[in-house]
Amino acid sequence: MSDKTRIALDVRDVEQLFSTFDPSPFHDFSLNATAAQYIASQAWYAPRRHRFVIALSIRGKPATARDAAKLQEVVRMHFTRLAASEQQNLRQLIRTGVISLAIGLCVLAFCTALSRVVDNSSLPDGWREGLRDGISVFGWVANWRPAQILFYDWWPVRRTRNLYRRLQDATVESGKPGTRTVASDEVAPIDTMPIAADRI
Fold this sequence. Notes:
Layout: E1 4-11, E2 18-19, E3 30-31, H1 33-44, E4 51-58, E5 61-62, H2 65-119, H3 125-141, H4 144-167, E6 171-174
Helix pairs in contact: 2-3, 2-4
C-alpha cells in the first residue's frame, strides 16, 4: 500500500488559493485561510507516517506545472510559518505550566501547614474540621490548572505542530479531482474541520 495521502484541490483559478495579505515582508503570497483550513482538515486523519500529495486541478482539468510549482512554494512557506508559530505556542504553554505548577505547589505547602495549625487549634470540632478541609481543598485546587496544562493541554498543540511540519513538505502535482492515490484514504468533510480557522 502506498504511504501517501492525496488531497484534491479543484479551483476556478489558482489565484483564488492565495491571499494578498502576508504578515511577512519577504514573501508576495500567502495561502488563503479557507484553502489552508481545507488542506489541514483533509490531512488531519491521515496516517501519521503518510506524506501528502496535493493534486491541483483547474476547472476539472490538471493544472499546469507552473501553477503546481507556485502552489507548492506557497504551501511550504505557509505551513512552515504555522509550524513555527505552533512550536512557539507549545514552548509558552509548557513554560506557563511549569510556572503554574511551582506556584501551585507553594500554595499547597502553605495550605497544608495552615490546615495543621487549624487542626491543632482550640476551635469547636465542627468549625475546626470544616476549616481544615476547606484549606486543604483550596491547596489542591490551586494545582488544577498546571495539572491540566502538563497532562492534557500540550499534546493537541504538539499534534497540530507536527501536522503543519508534514504539510510544509507536501508535494503539489497536477491531477484530476475525484481520484485517490490510496483506496482507504481517510479525510475530514469540509463542514467538520478539526482545525479552527483562527489557527490558520
